[in-house]
Write a structure and sequence with these properties.
Structural class: mainly alpha
Order of helices and strands: EEHHHEEHHHHH
Radius of gyration: 22 Å
Shape: globular
Strand content: 5-15%
Length: 252
């Protein structure tokens, strides 16, 4: 038996020249499940909710309350909630889907080797990078709208003094570092959990891997929440007007 660990997802087949990987299959499966589940719940809403509706409403209300507290206002919460909750629930379900019993055994034979049909979506850096870029671009867009394009650029390109110019360069590096830190946090934890689980299963295939599986399960939940919360925090910070801006506006 050989332990085969790959950083890149496996290409299963091609559709019109577009490679279909095992992570992409899981992404499509999770997306389809969430769409069907949402339609099912929304069309069965009742005044006296059942168990499924109770659970869904509890999750929505709890997360919305958290977003409203963090954002600081109802107006901001209503605008940012759909995005951050979608990121949270998608990442959560995608992470938990890899723990469905038996799904790891579903495989295809390609070039004489068995390739798993499903793989953790967040272990594909391409997927995590796209989610991170959505957060990054939204953050910059909000900052430009709130502060104005000239004030926004002035934060990074300030030639009034060497110190302020240096601090502006540091701000640019800090904004770019968000891409690396946000994406590698989610990708690294999920990929590391996948590798650790595979290694322990290879070394001791019975009861020893169980604690590591539970640890991976906890990591899957926590990292989905952390990613959405960081998105919420970045956007909220970008929408805040600094004290010196308020003073300048009042003087005008």
């Amino acid at each position: 038996m050989e332990l085969n660990i790959k950083l890149a997802p496996d290409i299963l087949f091609y559709i019109f020249g577009f490679p279909m990987t095992n992570t992409l299959i899981l992404i499509f499966s999770v997306s389809l499940f969430l769409i069907i589940f949402t339609l099912f719940v929304s069309r069965r809403m009742k005044m006296v909710p059942g168990m499924t509706q109770n659970i869904v409403e509890f999750i929505l209300e709890s997360y919305y309350s958290f977003v409203r507290t963090t954002a600081g206002s109802e107006k901001k919460a209503k605008r940012i909630f759909p995005l951050v909750f979608t990121m949270f629930i998608f990442a959560l379900v995608a992470n938990l889907a890899t723990y469905i019993p038996g799904q790891a055994a579903v495989s295809l034979y390609r070039n004489g080797e068995s390739v798993s049909l499903f793989r953790a979506a967040m272990s594909d850096y391409g997927m995590v990078f796209v989610m991170t870029m959505i957060t990054f671009l939204l953050t910059q867009t909000v900052a430009i709208i709130v502060h104005g394009p000239f004030r926004y650029l002035g934060k990074f390109l300030n030639f009034k003094s060497p110190l302020k110019f240096f601090l502006g360069i540091m701000d640019i590096i800090g904004e770019l570092a968000k891409i690396i830190s946000l994406s590698f946090r989610l990708f690294g934890n999920i990929f590391a959990g996948e590798v650790l689980g595979a290694v322990m299963l290879f070394l001791a295939p019975f009861f020893v891997p169980l604690p590591f599986k539970f640890l991976g399960l906890l990591t899957a939940v926590v990292q989905a929440f952390v990613f959405s919360v960081l998105t919420l925090v970045f956007v909220t910070m970008a929408s805040e007007i600094e004290e010196d801006e308020l003073t300048e506006s009042a003087s005008i």
